[in-house]
Amino acid sequence: MDKYAYTVTERFLRYVQIDTQSDPLSRTFPSTAKQKNLSALLVRELQEIGITDAMTDEYGYVYATIPATTSKDVPVICLCAHMDTAPDCSGANVKPIIHKSYDGSDIVLPDDTTQVIRAKDHPYLAGKTGDDIITASGKTLLGADNKAGVAEIMDAAQYLLQHPEIRHGKIRILFTPDEEVGRGVEHVNMEQLGAQFGYTLDGGELGSLEDETFSADGVKISITGISVHPGTAKDKMVSAIKVAAAIVDELPKGILSPETTEDRQGFIHPVRIEGMVEKAEIDFIIRDFTTAELEGHEFYLRKLMETVLERYPGAGATFEVKEQYRNMKEVLDKYPQVVTNAEEAIRRAGIDPLRMSIRGGTDGARLSFMGLPCPNIFTGEMALHSKHEYVSVQDMQKAVDTIVHLVQVWEERS
After folding, report:
1. One of 19, 132, 155, 179 is an active-site residue; which one?
2. How sure is the predictor about 182, in pLDDT bands with cuts at 50, 70 and 90?
3. pTM recorded for the entire structure
C-alpha cells in the first residue's frame, strides 16, 4: 500500500476520545447510550468516504457495504470490530499520547506518574523499539481494545474505495456495541448483514491469527439465609453473606483459577458477589477450551456449594447455569479456507502468521455459531483493560495492509 493513504492513526486518536464504556449491570441495549455517539460518527465518516448505505440501528450497530470490484462470484466477507471499552477502567476523557520512535525505556504516564509502563513487564513493548507507541495519560485506559480494530477497518475501507483497481468481492462492515460485557451480537440482524464469512479485528500482537476461544458458561448461585435482629439472633440467624463467603473461600487455591492457570487450562472464577443477611448472590464465569469440560467444572462447583450448605442448617441455594459462548474452532474447522486465506494475507503483508488461541472470547465466537465463521485478526492492541494499554502505530498500519490483502486473496481463490 502507498503509505500516504493511511488514516488509521488520525482515526484512532479521534475515536479513543469518545467515551464508549459499557456497563455489565445495565439492562438496556446498548448497555450505555453513549456508545451510540461513536456509531453516529462512524456512519457520517463512512458516508463521507462514499459508502451510501452506511447506517446505524436502534441498538447502535453500524452496517455498511464496500461494493465488489470483480465480476467473480466471491463470498461476502464481513469485517467486524466492537466500539465499547471495558468496564474495568475509566474510558472518559482519554488523552492519547504518541511516543515517537520509542527508545525501549519505561514509559511514565504524565497525568499519574505512579503509572509506569515498564519494558521488563511488557516484553512485546520492549521489542517495539523505533515504533511510534500510543498510550493514554495515566488516568484512563486507552481504548485500543477495540478502537484500533475500528480505525483499521475504516482506513482499509477508505483505501479500497480510493483504489477500485483492487479486485475484491462485496465486503460488509459491522461495528458492535457491548462486546466487553458479553452481549455484542445479541441483536445483530444476520439477514441484513448478509455475509458468508467474517473476521473480527480484535487480536493483539503483530501477525496473530486466533481461531480458537474458550467455551464459556456463567453460573449464578443465589443463597437464602434467615434474617433475625442481631440482638436476639443466637441459634436463629443464618447469614447468606457468610455462606457466600464460605463458598468463595472453599474454591481451590492452586488450580482452576485465572491466577493459577495458563495455556489450555480452564478455570472457575467468581466475578461478582453481593447481598445481605437474608439473600446473597455470587456470579461465576466458567471457562475451558473443551466444551465438555465445562460440565465437569460446574459439577465440581455445585458439589462445593452443597458441602458448604451442610454447615449452615436453614440456608438454601439455587444453582443456575447460562451458556455464554462456545469455542469457535468447532465451527472454523469445517471451513479451513477462512483461516488459510487470512494466513496468506498476513504473509503478503510481510509478517509471519502466528496461529494462537484466545483465553477469552470475541464477537467472532458467537458469530461463528450464528452462521458466520469468524476468526480473529491482530490489531496491535496490548495490555488490555488497564491504564497501561498501548498500541504501535506500525502494527495498526500492518493490520490495514492485511485487510487489503485479505479481500484480494478471497477474490483470487474464488
Report:
1. 179
2. confident
3. 0.91
Stated length of the chain: 414
Give the residue from 181, 317, 327 showing the smallest Cα distance to 243.
317
- Mark whether 106 is an active-site residue: no
Nine cell digits for residue 350? 510481510
CA distances (Å), origin 336, targets 9, 43, 342, 378? 33, 33, 10, 18
In 3D space, the residue among 366, 414, 385, 392 whose CA is nearest the CA of residue 146 turns out to be 385
**Cβ-based neighbours of 91, under 8 Å, separated by 6 or more:** 19, 20, 21, 85, 140, 141, 143
Give one DSSP letter per residue of 1-16, joined into a string. Answer: --GGG--HHHHHHHHH
Is 179 among the residues known to form the active site? yes
Q: Tell me the torsion sign for CA atoms 186, 187, 193, 199.
A: negative
- CB-based contact 400:152 (threshold 8 Å): yes
The catalytic residue among 45, 84, 145, 344 is 84
How much helix, strand and coil, in percent to the nearest 5, is found in the chain? Answer: 35, 25, 45
CA distance 174 to 176: 6
Q: Is residue 146 reached through a cis peptide bond, with omega within 30 degrees of 0 on the bond before it?
A: yes
Residue position matching grid coordinates 454447615: 311
Measure the CA–CA gap between 375 and 200, rounded to whole angstroms: 6
Task: Give the number of other Cβ atoms within 10 Å of residue 262's Cβ.
Answer: 7
Taking a C-beta distance cutoff of 8 angstroms, is the pair 102, 169 a contact?
Answer: no
The whole-angstrom separation of Cα 270 and Cα 263 is 20
Task: Give me the residue label for grid cell 459462548.
Answer: 325
Amino acid letter, 100: K
Residue-wise pLDDT tens digits, 262-317: 999 999 999 999 999 999 999 999 999 999 999 999 999 999 999 999 999 999 99
The region that residue 321 occupies, defined by phi over 0 for left and psi between -120 and 50 for alpha, beta otherwise, is beta
Spell out the SS3 assignment of 358-407.
ECCCCHHHHHHHCCCCCCEEECCCECCCCCCCEEEHHHHHHHHHHHHHHH
